[in-house]
Amino acid sequence: MNEVEQLSAPLAIVVVAAVLVVGVYVSSVVDVVAFRSVAGQRLRPGSAALFPARVAHRLSRQQSVRTERPDMILRVLAPAALLGLAAAAVTVIPLSPGIVVADVGTGIVLFGAAEALAIVAIFFHGWSPNSPFALIAGYRFVAVALSYELLSMFVLIGAAIPAESLSIGAIVESQAGLWNVIRQPLGLPLFLIVSLGVTFSGPLDLLDSNDLAGGGSVEDSGMQRLAWQTARHAMRIAFAACAAAVFLGGWHGPVLPGGLWMALKTFAVIALLGFLDVFVARISAERFVRVAWGVLLPLAFLNLLIAGVGAL
Amino acid sequence: MIDVAFVVFSVAAVASGYGVFRVDSMIRATYLLLASFLNVGAILVLLLAEYLGVALLFMMTVEMIVMGLFMVMFMMNPAGLNPMNMVHQPRFAAAAGVVAAAGVAVVAVFADFPVAPVDAESATTRELGIELLGGSMLVFESIGVTLLATMVCSVILSSATGRFGDGYEGSVAPALEPGGDHRPADDLYDPDAAGGMDMDMDMGDMDHGEMDMGGMDMGGMDMGGMDMGGMDHGEMDMGGMDMGDMDHGGMERDS
Amino acid sequence: MTPVEVFVAAGADRWHDAQALRAHELVRLMPTPRHATVLLVAGTIPGSAREAFDRVHDQLPHPRAVVTWDEIVAGNDVVDAVASEIVGRADRVMADPSTSSPGRLADEEPNDWRGVGPFGQGGEGMMGGTPYGRAMAMTADDRDGLSLDRLELRLGPFLGQLPGGLVADVALQGEVIQSIEFACAGSAPFVTGDRAVPVARRLLWLSHALHVQGLDAFAVGAARLARRSARLDDDPGLARDFASLRRRMRWTGLRSALRSVGDRDGLDTWARWSAHLDAIAASLDGADSRPVSADGSMPITAAELAEMITGLTLTDAVTTIIGFDIDVPAMTTTAVET
Amino acid sequence: MNLMTVLLVAAALIGVGVWGALAQQTFVMLMMGIEMMLNGVILAVAGFWAFAGAGLPKGQVLVILSMAVMAIELAIGFALVTAVYRARQADMTEGIGSLKG
Questions:
Q1: A265: domain range?
Q2: Chain A partners of C103 at a C-beta cutoff of 8 Å?
Q3: How many structural domains comprise chain D?
């Protein structure tokens, strides 16, 4: 493995903040573009680019309603924790050759831990407002999340096998010749399913879904809603960056500098997730759990087998 | 720097651990326990057991998610909105806690342990991996098999249906008196829904069982204790599985 | 401009009409009043729904405004007039938050929380009492034999995912519906399948149903088709555009999401959707607003529907209910007659 | 940070766990007490490994063993809670106390 540059603490904070701010904004714009293009509405570039800022401005002037007897600590903690976990997940992902905010030897396990903790934060969001639909949505989310949590760890460990290291930097390094998306063809699709689940979008929009009147966000307004949407987009960034680094070869690519490749690949995954969010109908939780244990988990085992055989 | 971090994590671990048993809301209790684990995980990382710390973080998070689910499911008052007192023998318990802590603390302060710190340069994660798939492979594999057995046991225990249909049908536990109903009169459960559960006997052992879990009652877990004979004779359901025997098997072996 | 977020509190008579607002670019119908700036009141709110309406009104965060559909004097296009009124009112209230609509109910807890028991639990022993005005959940038998707590809820009449005016009392254990009762006479015809329904109304049903299934962008498309079909002049491109929408819907996984949900007589929700979509396509192809054929499984009474969805999860129940284009006004009038 | 301080923290965690397990009435809270004790055990084992075990990998294996114990305790514990609840609707230790013997 090459020299890895550990960023100094102040620089690291700036880098992570910049990645998240830019990423969240871009991801929100992607949402607008996806929605409008699928809905067949007019799409003016300037208007779409300013859309998230306008929404943020409006929500910041709206009242944040306090529900009756909320669990106030957890209500505040939920978006903050989700945002913080997204930031933590971003720190272990190398952004360009040799530049990673925190070069942790067990980076991929840390990412998995952040993902598991994100489920806790999301449950808090459903639990805290003391509202039946939010609680049902949060509960349902957790029940489903437990069935893809295992999946995600198998998929990530599978990617770590050819690298012979748990560090994401080493995993990127190992893809110099062949990207994991080809080496382990099942890995990326399964990981994208997990991403859709943890960012509760598209077929796995089981948290803030319309069939429960907004589900976990049913009581959110104003800043609370803005914070939650921001945190959700931040989580999408973390997953997109991880998918780009672990499966799409990270900074590897011809001509362009490595950092730019990483950004492009991350953006591609964000765009894919954004369009899937708009384009795919929600699947019932019961059915997904059946599919997750009966089909997806065996596929993850198969993926692990492919990775193991490939490493021999 | 490391010392400061250690103090912070330690205080947080103990304080959130104390909070677990003081808050009203079950969800807060569950996740305070998780916070305690996270802090211990952080201390483990400080101790250079990087993989173990992160794995503890990961594992306990998922475990506490499950625990939170059960909390909300089984507790009558999970949010703690209705104030109630859910403790018993508080003085005895507090005294026992202090005695236990003091016991360990005395050992910590006065015992003379060898000084052999871990080498800061060593690749502990790598060493652990080689050890698990090398010298300690038997231990590692035993853990795996035990966990598998645990999964089977817990599914059978918690499922309402046995191999031959509804667990409440099938074999009926013997009555306490000849000809009498085996269920105590003050029982809450629905007479139609009961029957097969040999709970009278189980419950007696249950308290021990719960306690034994701390000390890992492995004997009770092994397949030999699990009345396989009853299974073959077509009585395998919640009743036929006879948890009573299972625990007795374990107990005899222990004593 | 960002769209104004609107929550619709519609009586049964105007609920379908209000769905047409989804077509409008500057208006977005939200699933919950907490997300809305404007409360749109459409149709007749019966006296029994008055209190529920007041609660919904107070759930909108400040600054908020109320627009009443029936008060708007419109020329030839009432939906446009309503939309521009909504945008105007939203602009005004955002510019001057002091004009925000004041609360209709006192902002207080329904009950004193501290009760009489030794720990303030308000009842005998551990259980009992009404903390915060709500009785504690009591256990009851359930399908898994676990006897978990039972949550009693009243859904409607202004719930975003259900047709306006529909009221149902449900008892939930977890996400599973243990019992459900619709607020109408049990034998009342709930869905009248043989009635000729204008194609615009069917498209509006489709728009709402797509929204509930998480396909908001498609819902916009369906609402736009509904608006075009409502115009009197002949629109030759309509059938083609509907076919194109239907083709794109095939890629959304709707079919697998709806299949084997809400089975009745061998027909599932997907079969009912298909019957609706076929009926729309047939009407657009020139046939005169053909009734949904018998294989669309209609009609169904409220009691039959309740029986169908007992034991389903809340999500599947909502999907099943939405699968029928429920005729709430017909239901309530026949309820009075019987 | 040395062995003594780590063990003192572990002692505090174990003490809290003992107190919680004995004082709490509900099964799930009781299990939390046990988990808390194991938490202290893990910390103590890791402390010994780091300061007195010369970093032998076998020490880490012992920590993994403790984690497995915790997972097993939780799984079997919840299965038992479910079984008891199914039969008795009891979620408190007193609820099944009358059946001893």
A1: 5-311
A2: none
A3: 1
The reported pLDDT for the residue numbered D95 is 62
Residue B228 half-sphere exposure, CB side, CA atoms within 13 Å? 5
Q: Which chain C residues are closer than 8 Å to D86 by Cβ?
A: 145-147
Beta-bridge partners for B37: none
B146 Cβ under 8 Å from any chain D Cβ: yes
| Chain B residues inside the 8 Å CB shell of C136 | 76-77, 82
- How far is Cα D61 from Cα B132, in angstroms, rounded to an integer? 7
User: What domain count does chain A have?
Assistant: 1
Same domain assignment for residues B75 and B124: yes
Residue B244 domain boundaries: 136-254
Q: 3-state class of D92 per DSSP?
A: strand
| Closest-CA distance of chain B to residue D3, Å | 8
C31, C256, C319: residue with CB nearest A214: C31
Spatial CA neighbour of B199 closest among B232, B172, B231: B172
B107 in the same domain as B200: no
Which two tokens mark C209? 């149903």
DSSP assignment, residue B232? I
- In this structure, the dihedral spanned by the alpha carbons of residues C103, C105, C110 and C112, taken in order and rounded to 10 degrees, is 70
- In what order do the strands lie in the sheet containing C27-29? C27-29, C4-10, C38-42, C65-68
CA distance C20 to chain B (A): 41
Q: Do chains B and D touch (3 or more CB pairs under 8 A)?
A: yes
**CA distance to A262, B23, B98, B118, B241, per residue, from B11 (Å):** 40, 18, 17, 24, 46
Instruction: Kindly report the CATH number assigned to the domain that includes residue D68.
Output: 1.10.287.3510
Residues B94-111, mean pLDDT to the nearest whole number? 87
Q: Which pair of tokens denotes residue A223?
A: 């800043």
Lookup: tokens for A228: 């939650």
* Per-residue burial over B225-238, b = 16 or more CB atoms within 10 Å of its CB, e = otherwise: bbbeebbeeebbbb
B104/B12 same-domain check: yes
Domain count, chain B: 2
This model of the complex carries an ipTM of: 0.83
Domain encompassing residue D53: 3-90
Tell me the chain B residues in contact with residue A127 when contact means C-beta distances shorter than 8 Å.
Answer: 27
DSSP 8-state secondary structure symbol assigned to residue C92: H
The answer to whether the beta carbons of residues A31 and A277 sit under 8 Å apart is yes
**pLDDT tens-digit profile, chain C (338 residues):** 788 999 998 888 888 888 889 988 889 999 999 999 999 998 888 877 888 888 888 888 888 899 888 888 777 788 888 888 899 988 898 888 888 888 888 777 666 655 555 555 555 555 555 555 566 666 677 666 666 777 788 887 888 888 877 888 888 887 888 888 887 644 455 665 555 677 788 888 889 999 999 898 999 989 988 888 877 666 778 888 888 888 888 888 888 888 878 777 777 888 888 888 888 887 777 655 445 544 444 567 777 778 888 888 888 888 888 888 777 766 555 444 33
DSSP per-residue string spanning A109-169: HHHHHHHHHHHHHHHHHHHTT--HHHHHHHHHHHHHHHHHHHHHHHHHHHHHHHHTSS-HH
Please give the full DSSP string across C274-312, using - where no structure is assigned.
HHHHHHHHHHHTTS-SPPPPGGG---EEHHHHHHHHTTS
> Which of these ranges, A286-295, B81-90, B114-123, B184-193, has the smallest mean pLDDT?
B184-193
Q: Which residue of B has its CA nearest to A119?
A: B65
Domain ranges of chain C: 4-99, 193-298
What is the spatial distance between Cα B64 and Cα B38, in angstroms, rounded to a whole number? 11
Minimum mean pLDDT range among A269-278, B117-126, C83-92, D16-25: B117-126
Residues 183-202 of chain B with CB under 8 A from chain A are: none
- Residue D95 in domain: no
Determine the average pLDDT of the residues in B98-119.
84
